[in-house]
């Protein structure tokens, strides 16, 4: 078969279909993963002992087990107790739980780095703890967490391929199907790899732009020569 | 003295951190429009005392009253009292991610529930009071220490407090910047703001304070007008302390 015909009429359309699913997985997971991360980080850092313990345990469980295991439980295991997800929904739930746990750690680190005085000043003005967290602490902490969060987002792009293991035909899965059918492993997977590279590159550029836009004027970015 | 004039009453405040008893029973009354200056060696609980007044540090014992209402043991109502008791910190503690004007208007919006336009107008008015109106759109990191401290004073003023607590407001500043902050504070005092000021600035104390409280080892050791404490032979401890500071500075 002609290489060009294979590439443009078989491989590319298949990968584009898979890419759409991958993008859907990411779009459905990332916002909730971020929200969960914020909630868990705040809960662990500022919640009462019970909430804090729950958040800590959740992060511990997710960090300590493979994501693939979580997906298997969600998709193959839960029906036995009467909860049935479609493969897509099971993937999204798994990704949110995983993404949220790691995001929480990045955000928690950023929360800890905000100086105590910010909270003290906010409370001295009559803000409740929650108002201070919402209006003073989080806006600063989230800026500091951007590098870590973007890293985690890039992981999400890549581990979304695990959805294939519970039958979701996303980008990697689409590549795998073409590869086995036409016996074109190298070409197919190389093409899949390039698509991921493009996604990650776009993310990296977008994060750079975002960081510049939300940077607080006058704050010195960590450069070796400028220490404040 | 007319009792109604008393805006803030502090009764027998005790506070320990572990085995270290920082405050051992401090009491005083503050009349409306009065400026009280707290002076004394480091570690004698001056800053802790201020924080006990607005309950940022809850005292172990003792009570605080604002306008006849108890501030201590006030539960969630403490957030009401904290609006009425402004505070200015040694290290400014401006909100780093907000411009000067937004620093001032944040609590107006979120705590007082003011509308955006009204809050902005009030914030700009307060910035004008401290001579920082032209810097409204600058971020804390773009301001000098003196400018930042003036913004933080504006932030405290915006809540229309009954009294403002100044916790070593110029200790982080070099002399020139110190002067611009003290000028603002003098103006406030002249305009009738009630102020409690922890400071080492004797010049400020002498020119502005109605009363100086010299604190040592967690208690008020000497108390009186600046003139009295500096010149009356019955009072020696503050003079000794100031002498020690001065001789250190001469070195």
Automatic annotation (TrEMBL), chain A:
GO terms for cellular component: ATP-binding cassette (ABC) transporter complex. The keyword Oxidoreductase does not apply. It is a multi-pass membrane protein. It is found in: Cell membrane. Residues 19-207 form the ABC transmembrane type-1 domain. InterPro entries: AA_ABC_transptr_permease_3TM (IPR010065), ArtM/GltK/GlnP/TcyL/YhdX-like (IPR043429), MetI-like (IPR000515), MetI-like_sf (IPR035906). Gene3D superfamilies: MetI-like. The chain crosses the membrane at residues 20-42, 54-75, 81-102, 153-169, 189-210. Keywords: Amino-acid transport, Cell membrane, Membrane, Transmembrane, Transmembrane helix, Transport. GO terms for biological process: amino acid transport. GO terms for molecular function: transmembrane transporter activity. Pfam families: BPD_transp_1 (PF00528). Belongs to the binding-protein-dependent transport system permease family. This is Amino acid ABC transporter permease.
TrEMBL record, chain B:
Gene3D superfamilies: P-loop containing nucleotide triphosphate hydrolases. Residues 8-242 form the ABC transporter domain. One of its GO terms (molecular function) is ATP binding. It is found in: Cell membrane. PANTHER family: AMINO ACID IMPORT ATP-BINDING PROTEIN, GLUTAMATE_ASPARTATE IMPORT ATP-BINDING PROTEIN GLTL. Belongs to the ABC transporter superfamily. This is Glutamine ABC transporter ATP-binding protein. The lineage of its organism: Archaea, Methanobacteriati, Methanobacteriota, Stenosarchaea group, Methanomicrobia. The gene is glnQ.
